[in-house]
Specification:
By secondary structure, the chain is mainly alpha-helical. The chain is built from 6 helices and 3 strands. The chain has a 3-stranded mixed sheet with strand order 2-1-3. The longest helix is centred in the middle third of the chain and has 63 residues.
Length: 237
C-alpha cells in the first residue's frame, strides 16, 4: 500500500467528519420549531392514548355483548323449562337457575351501560382534540417549513461533502476502503486516527517507535489500543 492511499483515507475521514457535523447541525431543532413540535407530539400522543382506550373498551364491549346474548338465550331456555316441570323439586331447581341467570344478565347489562358511558366520555375528549388539531397541524407545518428553509446552506454543503467523499472513495482500493468503513462503523465514526507526537489522537495510546517507523515507511498499521488505522502526516517538502 502506498502512502498516497493513506493520504486518501485521511482526506476521506476529514470529509466524513465534516459531513457528520453538518448532519448533526441539521438535526438540531431551533426553539421556534421545537416548542411547536413538543406541543404537536404531545397532542398526537394524547389522541393515540384516547383512541387506544376507546379500542380497548370496544373489544370489551363486544366480549360482554356476546356473553350477554348467551345468558339471555339461557334465560329463555330456563323459563321454557319452568313450564315443563313435574314436581316441586324440579320447580325449585328451575327457579334457581332462572334467578342466577337473571343476576348475571343484570350485571352484564350494567357493565354494558358503564362501558357506553366511558366510551362516550372518551369520544367527546377525542373529538375535542380533533377540533383543535387542524390549527395545530397548520402551525406545525409552517414552523417545520421555516426550519427546513433555513437549512438550505447546510444541506448544500452536506451534498457537496457527500459528492467529495464518493469521489475520494473511487481512488481507494476496495479492500482498504472496506476495512476503513468497517472500523468507521465500529469505532464511533473514526476509522483513521492521526498520530500526534507519539500518541494516537483517538485513544491516547502511545505509539511504539517500531510502529512509528512502519508508518514512516507507508505501511498500513493499526493502533494497538483502539485498532483504528493510524495516520502519520508527512512533512511537506
Amino acid at each position: 500500500m502506498s502512502k498516497s492511499d493513506v493520504d486518501k483515507l485521511w482526506e476521506l475521514q476529514t470529509v466524513l467528519t465534516a459531513l457528520n457535523e453538518r448532519e448533526k447541525q441539521m438535526s438540531v431543532k431551533p426553539e421556534s420549531f421545537a416548542a411547536v413540535d413538543r406541543e404537536f407530539q404531545s397532542a398526537n400522543d394524547e389522541m393515540l392514548r384516547l383512541q387506544g382506550e376507546l379500542d380497548t373498551l370496544g373489544k370489551e364491549r363486544r366480549r360482554v355483548d356476546g356473553e350477554l346474548s348467551d345468558q339471555q338465550e339461557a334465560l329463555k331456555k330456563y323459563q321454557g323449562q319452568l313450564m315443563q316441570v313435574k314436581n316441586q323439586q324440579q320447580y325449585a331447581a328451575a327457579w334457581k337457575e332462572i334467578d342466577t341467570t337473571r343476576k348475571s344478565v343484570k350485571e352484564l347489562e350494567d357493565s354494558v351501560l358503564k362501558n357506553m358511558t366511558e366510551a362516550e366520555g372518551l369520544q367527546a375528549q377525542l373529538d375535542g382534540r380533533k377540533d383543535t388539531h387542524t390549527d395545530l397541524q397548520s402551525r406545525y407545518d409552517a414552523a417545520h417549513a421555516e426550519w427546513q428553509a433555513s437549512l438550505g446552506d447546510l444541506r448544500a454543503e452536506a451534498e457537496k461533502l457527500k459528492a467529495r467523499a464518493a469521489e475520494i472513495e473511487k481512488g481507494i482500493p476496495e479492500r482498504l476502503r472496506n476495512e476503513f468503513h468497517k472500523i468507521y462503523r465500529q469505532r464511533q465514526q473514526i476509522g483513521l486516527a492521526r498520530v500526534n507526537g507519539d500518541t494516537c489522537s483517538a485513544c491516547r495510546n502511545r505509539v511504539r517507535p517500531q510502529v512509528a517507523q512502519q508508518l514512516k515507511r507507508g505501511e498500513l498499521v493499526h493502533c494497538e489500543g483502539c485498532h483504528r488505522i493510524l495516520y502519520l502526516e508527512r512533512p511537506t517538502s
